Amino acid sequence: MRFNEDWKDFEVLDAGDGEKLERWGKVYLLRPDPQVIWPAETKLDKFKDLNAHYHRSSSGGGKWKIIKPMPEEWCVSWKNLKFKIKPMGFKHTGLFPEQAVNWATMIDLIKNAKRPISVLNLFGYTGGATVACASAGASVCHVDSAKAMVERCKENIKLSGLESAQVRYIIDDCRKFVEREIKRGKKYDAIIMDPPSYGRGTNGEVWKLEDNLFEFVKLCDGVLSDNPLFVLINSYTTGLGAIVMEMVLNKAISKKGNCTSYEVCLPIKQGGYLPCGNSAILTFDK
Question: For the whole model, what pTM was predicted?
Answer without folding.
Answer: 0.95
